[in-house]
């Protein structure tokens, strides 16, 4: 079993030397879904969430932004779908975990520190990190 380095400073959490795909899979419980975004800064995620109207459709999430532009993102709800979409991401990926009502639960960013890859997680809903990753091990 490899040593995972975890730092907790709620609402921020960091996990290094972990299998990122396995960590993301832990959040696909119940009707939760994951959506990858092509943004880099946390402020851009906040702007996206504030200025967008999200609607769940069959296998996609429809996003209507402040200028009425419509975009569609895959509604990732299974480990198989996650694995497929994750292969298209680089190590500095950005994603949001939503509940079944498209309420954002977490913002997750891929990171590299100390020569290893990992994730930086921001809770958007208190207690979500502990609910899904309290005793995470590989």
Index terms:
6-stranded antiparallel β-sheet, 138 residues, 9 strands, single chain, 3-stranded antiparallel β-sheet, alpha+beta, globular
Please give a structural write-up.
- It is a single chain.
- By secondary structure, the protein is an alpha+beta fold.
- It has helices at 20-25, 42-51, 79-86, 128-133; strands at residues 5-9, 12-16, 33-37, 53-57, 60-64, 70-74, 94-98, 104-113, 116-123.
- The strands form two sheets. A six-stranded antiparallel sheet has the order 1-2-9-8-7-3. A three-stranded antiparallel sheet has the order 4-5-6.
- A hairpin with a 5-residue loop joins strand 7 and strand 8.
- The longest helix has 10 residues, at 42-51.
- The model has no long low-confidence stretch (mean pLDDT 93).
| Order of helix and strand elements from N to C terminus | EEHEHEEEHEEEH
Distance between the termini: 6 Å
The SS-based structural class is alpha+beta
Q: What is the number of helical segments per DSSP (H or I, 4+ residues)? A: 4
Task: Choose one word for the global shape.
Answer: globular
Give the oligomeric state. Answer: single chain
The residue fraction in helices comes out at: 10-25%
Radius of gyration: 15 Å
What does the average pLDDT come to? 93
What proportion strand? 35-45%
What's the helix and strand layout?
Elements: E1 5-9, E2 12-16, H1 20-25, E3 33-37, H2 42-51, E4 53-57, E5 60-64, E6 70-74, H3 79-86, E7 94-98, E8 104-113, E9 116-123, H4 128-133
Antiparallel strand pairs: 1-2, 2-9, 3-7, 4-5, 5-6, 7-8, 8-9
């Amino acid at each position: 079993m490899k040593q995972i380095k975890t730092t907790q400073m709620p609402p921020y959490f960091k996990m290094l030397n972990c299998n990122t795909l396995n960590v993301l899979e832990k959040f696909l419980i119940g009707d939760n879904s994951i959506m990858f975004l092509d943004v880099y800064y946390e402020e851009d995620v906040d702007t996206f969430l504030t200025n967008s109207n999200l609607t769940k459709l069959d296998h996609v999430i429809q996003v209507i932004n402040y200028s009425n532009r419509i975009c569609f993102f895959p509604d990732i709800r299974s480990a198989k779908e996650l694995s497929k979409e994750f292969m298209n991401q680089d190590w500095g990926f950005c994603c949001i975990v939503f509940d079944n009502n498209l309420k954002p639960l977490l913002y997750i960013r891929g990171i590299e520190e100390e020569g290893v890859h990992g994730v930086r997680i921001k809770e958007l809903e208190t207690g979500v990190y502990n609910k899904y990753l309290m005793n995470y091990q590989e």
